[in-house]
């Protein structure tokens, strides 16, 4: 079978073997480099197999598959880092989730709009679906990343136990409502607007994979996710030591995690934008942001039962300003249902500001 001969088939298997050989041991530098390569290869493989499944089930279910797959990777990375980090890992969840929001809402959205606008002068998408998704992102971000900085029941930017449970349940419920609207009740709001250009050669028009290929990819997706989470645990000490030795803020660890996890999805969104399927790009971006908060926060809240150390979720003034600016600019971008290179450029400048200020706050 063709899929057996592809690199996306054997890379996750090799990564699992490397994981078994390195688990519970002090790793030398060359082995850490091998683990890092396996980690990156597994991330790319996971998203590839998610795309195969997505092609079979169609939109908007395809974007949902990718978003959930990426979020599983993110949650695994965060939990693994927090499990061995103690008190110094108290902000990993906040930093990673906030980085994911900034990368998706500014980096992926801005790059997709810029690519589509350069190709067609104006990028066209469904304002109804994108607007609802953006409203969900803003609400989730405010409830989980902003409110902890203003609550008074617990000192510092932390929730009390009851507040954390409420935020987790509310996030999960809001994510469930969004999925229901996206896939059932108002599915048409999230379907791509038909491209006007000749799409000859675009693989989105190709025949979907067979049922056997789909199940094969689904199984390999789980293998790749296992390899990602496990190898992330092996390589996490090297990431933390590198950030610490360079004298960089701890928040950089979260940025590195989010960039690594979301890079393949960024490539998928750009490919969709080049095919005039901007709505698919926005589904990927906003869907990932919603899943990143709506699934990560409940998972971290559950994991905090056995994880030691505090759980800091509230953002500082600098990041609060970036989040507020992102919310305002995103609303102005989405409402018209049309965008040009200016909107794409504005979002990319915001993303660049976020990355720069993460390294130099």
TrEMBL record:
One Pfam family from the record: Na_Ca_ex
InterPro entries in the cross-refs: Alkaline_pH_Ca-Antiporter, NaCa_Exmemb
Main location: membrane
Spans traversing the lipid bilayer: 7-24, 30-49, 61-85, 97-118, 130-150, 162-181, 215-239, 251-272, 284-307, 313-334, 341-359
Membrane topology per record: Multi-pass membrane protein
Annotated Gene Ontology cellular component terms: plasma membrane
GO function terms (MF aspect): potassium:proton antiporter activity; sodium:proton antiporter activity
Location in the cell: Membrane
Domain Sodium/calcium exchanger membrane region: from-to ranges: 33-183, 216-359
Alphabetical UniProt keywords: Membrane, Transmembrane, Transmembrane helix
Name listed for the protein in its UniProt record: Ionic transporter y4hA
